[in-house]
Design goal:
Blueprint: E1 2-6, H1 16-28, E2 33-39, E3 46-50, E4 53-58, E5 62-64, E6 67-69, H2 71-76, E7 84-89, H3 92-101, E8 106-111, H4 119-135, E9 138-141, H5 144-149, E10 160-162, E11 185-188, H6 197-204, E12 211-214, H7 220-226, H8 228-232, E13 236-239, H9 244-253, E14 257-258, H10 271-276, E15 282-285, H11 291-294, E16 301-304, H12 309-320, H13 323-340, H14 343-361
Parallel strand pairs: 1-2, 1-7, 2-4, 7-8, 8-9, 9-10, 11-12, 12-13, 14-15, 15-16
Antiparallel strand pairs: 3-4, 5-6
Length: about 350
């Protein structure tokens, strides 16, 4: 079975979808012939092998609304022929390329999220996207929430298979970690609008919780300004993105994890699994996406209304002041992660769907 994985970008570019595509490509490559086709983040086309997976990155002449612009990608997509063409959306460039060049193969889409912010582009893109969804043989969503609540997918329910994202438990060893003298809660992610980082700062002002925030992004200066007093009082600590060992250490030692995302751009929140595998409860938000599917209210953590600072502060205080509840929720979180969200399960379900698609075409 020859599989072409098609995405906007690929490792070492940091992003949740990019990490997922890498995991899928390397997992399937053990029993299939997998090739990745994507754009480069520079004006150079390269072909390289990353962990035995052939990766072709076509030169990009720029970016528009976070989407790489690459004429080379459009012109060459058809040359990458496989039994399965596995597209990861949103990716308007790949949809346009398919419309223009009509590559051969069974089309399977993983629908990671709706397009939320780029309303202007969506006005023109919507008809093309529905053409592509009609053409697809199968559509994967990473949670039932996304399948049920995406307005784009409603006409295509009979094509949808739910395959949750997963992590490899062996990549998350427990350790004693950094020598932080204080207890702390943890946030890890980009400092951007939909992550709820400003809401988190405002919620902290209503609690006694010490939070370590790990990340970078355009809202960093705003966080430094809004959180100046918290930083001075040693209740807010900012770290840049950490290497794997250091990040595991922080997950191991935190009291609980906070994902206060405010917009549906947060489609799944795989970082929740990184906390849960360390037996840490999660505070997340009730978005119409996979986020509250991963974290279950009063079972693996607490769920609050998106953007509600008072709710967020109350949830933080509840876990901070109730160690027995925090421990109990953390144990449940670990069990849910192991039973529903491992990489092996994700790859096996994907392989089964691909095999089913090939068999039905014979």
């Amino acid at each position: 079975m020859k599989v072409i994985e098609i995405n906007k970008l690929y490792h070492p570019w940091i992003g949740g979808v990019e990490t997922h595509v890498k995991n899928i490509a390397e997992g399937l490559n053990k029993t299939a012939n997998v090739e990745v086709v994507c754009c480069n983040h520079t004006n150079t086309t390269i072909t390289e092998y990353i962990n035995d997976v052939k990766v072709t990155k076509y030169k990009a002449i720029g970016r528009l609304f976070s989407l790489p612009l690459s004429l080379s990608f459009i012109l060459n997509l058809r040359s990458h022929q496989g039994d399965i063409l596995h597209f990861h959306l949103p990716n308007p460039l790949a949809v346009l390329s398919t419309f223009i060049t009509r590559p051969k193969g069974i089309i399977i889409i993983t629908w990671h999220s709706d397009i939320v912010k780029q309303k202007f582009i969506l006005f023109f893109y919507r008809p093309l996207l529905h053409w592509f969804l009609k053409k697809a043989d199968h559509i994967i969503t990473t949670s039932p929430n996304l399948a049920d609540k995406s307005t784009f997918l409603t006409p295509y329910r009979d094509k949808i298979t739910i395959i949750p994202l997963g992590i490899n438990p062996h990549h998350y060893p427990k350790n004693e970690g950094p020598t932080e003298s204080q207890r702390f809660a943890l946030f890890v992610g980009r400092f951007i609008y939909y992550k709820g980082v400003i809401e988190l700062i405002n919620a902290m002002k209503k609690t006694n919780v010490h939070v370590i925030m790990v990340g970078e992004g355009p809202l960093k200066e705003h966080i430094l300004t809004q959180g100046k007093e918290l930083i001075q009082n040693k209740r807010l600590t900012l770290y840049p993105f950490q290497d794997t060992e250091s990040l595991n250490a922080l997950f191991s030692r935190c009291e609980f994890f906070i994902l206060p995302s405010t917009h549906p751009s947060e489609a799944f929140g795989i970082v929740q699994l990184e906390a849960m595998i360390h037996s840490k409860p999660v505070i997340s938000t009730n978005l119409p996406t996979g986020v509250p599917y991963v974290n279950q209210h009063n079972h693996t953590g607490l769920i609050v209304a998106p953007g509600n600072v008072d709710d967020l502060a109350q949830a933080m205080t509840t876990l901070w002041t109730n160690p027995s509840l925090t421990s109990s929720l953390g144990k449940n979180a670990y069990q849910r992660c192991i039973s529903h969200f491992t990489e092996d399960q994700m790859i096996e379900k994907t392989k089964q769907l691909f095999t089913k698609a090939l068999t039905s075409k014979e």
